[in-house]
Amino acid sequence: MPGIEVEKSGAIKYNGVSINKFYIEGHDMLGGQYGLATHNIQQKDVGSVEVLQNHQPVKALEDLSFSQNPAINIRLKEDAKSRWTGTARLGLGASPLLWNVESSLMRFAAKRQSLNIYKTNNIGLEVTRESRNLNMADIMNSIANNYQFPNYIQVSPSGLTDIEDRLRFNKSHLVSTNNLWSLGKNWDLTHKISYTHNRLTSDNSSQTTYFLEDSTWVVNESQHALTRQNYLSTEVNLTANTAVFYFKNRLQLDMRWNDIDMSTTGSYPNEQKAHTPYYKLSNDLELLKRNGRKAWVINSYNLFLASPSELTVQRKADPVAQQNIDAKAFFTHTNSSYSMGLGAFSLSFKGGLSGVVRSLDTDLTGLPDSLGILTNDLTLQFLNIYLNTTMEFTKKGWRIKADAPLSSASYRYKNRAESDITHFTRLWFSPQLYTEYQFTTRFTTSLTAQIAQRPVEEQHFYSGWILNNYRTLSQGILTKDRGNSKLLFLNFSYKNPLQVFFSNFYISRDWQYSPLIANRSFTEEYVLNSYLSYHNRSSDWRFAGNISKGLEALKGIVTLRGSYSLSEAKTIQDHTVTDYNQELWSLSAQINSRIAPWVNLSYHLNYRQNGLTLKDTDTHSSNKMVSESLTCNFTPSKSIIIRLTGDHYYNKLDKNPSKNLFLADTEFIYTFRKGWETNLSVTNIFNQKTYAYTQYNGLTSFYREYKIRPRNVLASLLFRF
């Protein structure tokens, strides 16, 4: 649809801006997990798609606080409402024995909505993708409450999103039930529960190059991995949304059990076994009351986390290395705000406190004591008290919002392993200004300016080494300052729906200062990642834009996107401070066309160029990557669809030969009357074996080569009702 962009993840944007709500018949049953709807609601049941611009999801704040984000509301056809609909698919194939089973059952009545799904396959499809939170507004709003543990154990096979499904050798299951009950006017009760299981195997080889001052260190690896992932999530949500009153309470439980066995050959042969369970229980309560042009809000969020993890590494002829980690935390955040309207102005005050009590116990055995301290036994408490004053102005095309947050945090750190107790307090002030002017109904520009003092990252408060995987160890640092950042963000947006033309461009510039610098050093067998006190400054330029135009000659839409980023930074590697620049170009084009009544096609082109320059040595390395995808659908009759898909991947390195990979798929679909459909598909027709690419990350280049799925043939029978 013109102006609407659906990313590969399933996230939806309108004219370059992420949506903040996805409604079905005006109800928000799925929250950010709207991929469950877009993947399973049948196209023939959709009557219309409504775009709600500058959508304020809280009705009581509609003229007190504006929103920059749109929303989408799906309206169903009359014959699809108030009745049970669904699909059932059974697919079987060969090379080896393949299956793809899907079933869905849904009903969207006036006072009750229900969406139930079961899916299982071993053909590479990622079933968990549909249940991910795609709502960027929810993600951004939850940052203040998104307390998590660092990824202490980093044992996982490398993945590549470009051809992710072609790399997955899987046995996957998804069960999901989602229900909404309307309890009266403006009151909704929702309940969601989902369980996913993935059993994944992977084979890949890699070459990691570390750029040192006058040399390089190269590590070659070949990996075979078996991963077992289990994820159970349940949520109960009670919401009331009226013009004068808003209430929300969400109780959520997440549990994960992930295990991985990895065998590595090459420079450092080893066997790794990792067990990384994760438990999270949270409750989020929000209450808003409005009286005229005034509103009062109270919010309370409480969270408990636990993650007992284990890692075992067996190197050839070396003792077994055993890393045990026990991390627990309780996080709380309670705040209250008061808002009032003064003509075109609105003023709000928000004050609150947040705090955490956490513990970290780690024990590492099997490594030499010469590395340093190999245990951690610590507790930490912090209490943050803050006040944020916000002023908003809306009049004659102007939208201005100014934030002035001030906070004070007290920390108490106790390290029993070193008999160390530390107390300190820090004060932060991080103002932000957002200005938007709508020149016409079609052309809008906005400017964001921000100066942020970074809060202390108390998760780095540990001094004992932690084994992340067979090759790397990490060490934290006790620091009382995190530095600051400055940001300028200028955005231009133009749309002309009648001419089917949409465009959006932005330029951003940011500067960062940190009293710390990443420090990477090397022993004979290990990479040691830590931090050092150092006045570290870095900066970034970013440019991006997209244009979408409907062309009658093509009977379709052409979309162009581009971006450029330049990062200037420094790091310490092998006891040497190294300044470097990293550039990234990205260009893409998409054409969707119905060139004839019985033919439509979709073409995607993506180009990326990544460059790394070491300033002191004038060393420069770069790589180019191009990916193309062409899908043609032929419909010689209403009952027949023939789909042909071709993918091309190109990778070029400096002073190295280029690599090309061609993949092709085909699909034949025949639709019977009364909802029956047969499907015959062949993927990877040319039976390609591997895919390779290179990318840069700081002073490191990664070359990866993956085993991809062989030729698969699958026959399916689908029934819609």
Structure description:
With 721 residues, the protein is mainly beta. It has three helices and 38 strands. The strands form three sheets. It has a 32-stranded mixed beta sheet that branches. The longest helix has 6 residues. The radius of gyration is 27 Å and the shape is globular.
Sheet of most strands: 32 strands, mixed
Measured distance between first and last alpha carbons: 26 Å
Number of helices: 3
- The rounded Rg comes to 27 Å
**How would you state the average pLDDT, rounded?**
89
Compact overview of the structure:
With 721 residues, the chain is mainly beta.
Write the layout of secondary structure elements.
Elements: E1 4-6, E2 12-14, E3 17-18, E4 21-24, H1 35-38, E5 46-52, E6 71-76, E7 85-94, E8 98-108, E9 112-121, H2 136-141, H3 164-167, E10 169-184, E11 187-211, E12 216-241, E13 245-266, E14 270-275, E15 278-291, E16 294-315, E17 321-342, E18 345-365, E19 375-395, E20 398-415, E21 420-429, E22 432-438, E23 443-453, E24 466-467, E25 472-474, E26 484-496, E27 501-522, E28 527-551, E29 556-573, E30 576-596, E31 599-614, E32 619-637, E33 640-653, E34 659-671, E35 676-683, E36 690-697, E37 700-707, E38 712-720
Parallel strand pairs: 4-6, 25-28, 27-29
Antiparallel strand pairs: 1-2, 2-3, 5-6, 7-8, 7-38, 8-9, 9-10, 10-11, 11-12, 11-37, 12-13, 13-14, 13-15, 14-16, 15-16, 16-17, 17-18, 18-19, 19-20, 20-21, 20-22, 22-23, 23-26, 24-25, 26-27, 27-28, 28-29, 29-30, 30-31, 31-32, 32-33, 33-34, 34-35, 35-38, 36-37
